[in-house]
Amino acid sequence: MDYVFDALPVDRELLDFAVRLVSRAGQMSVKGFFGDWHSRRKEDGSEVTEVDEAVEELIRAGLGRRAPEDGVFGEEGGVTSGTSGRRWIIDPINGTSCFTRRVPLFSNDLAYEDEHGPAIGVINLPLSQQMVVAGRGLGCWVLPGPEPDLQSGYRARVTERASIRAARTQMHNPAGWPEELLIALHRQVFLLPSTGGIVDLVTGRADAVVVAGPPMGYEDVAPMPVIVTEAGGRVTDLSGTSVLEGDMTVLATNGRLHDAFLHLVSGLPRSRDLHALDIGD
User: CATH number for the domain including 197?
Assistant: First the structure.
């Protein structure tokens, strides 16, 4: 499912609603971050806390009141069928492993898909008090402050860098990267740890973002197409396939650098065997 450039713009009121809803989710997750909770392992080995589940329930309740006919897919609650053909995708706390270790690098993510494809994307960094939101045909916006609002935001734009050499490239999950991929990029670009990811890309603090290693979930990548595209960039998997239909790796760039990155990583492995490492928890 690709971003459709000539589709009708998404409803502005729906975008406002998404901002308000994710803002409330952010406030709840911040309170939880500084509170007491327990974590447990899910069947896939990933962590979850009561805060993840509570934040998703808050978002689901808001969607149920505003758009009860729409479907919902949430990382914690799974699929709720709808009748409209439209759906919302929730990642209540993207970065639970950071959350459980009291590292302030997590986000609240929400995406909306209609009959034309990706239509709304929201990534909220509540502890940084920065939200990035985009609507198809309405642009991509940075909303600062504890109570983000589209009226007080400013337009997000990617960089105009045209050379891959020393391009500022954030790497996500590098512990799971194979040596070949790491070396190929290290020789050409300026590799940095992922601190803001897509938010840093669309605000000009990074020229590219690469995600490899263990595959992402659909809820992780769902907000990316509309956010990156509306900010002037491009996002695919590392093979150049639609990020929503690919192998759940991610290559997000300012657009100008995209083909050069695809050429650089072409044919390289995407993941290493973490089970062979004794890295503990």
Answer: 3.40.190.80
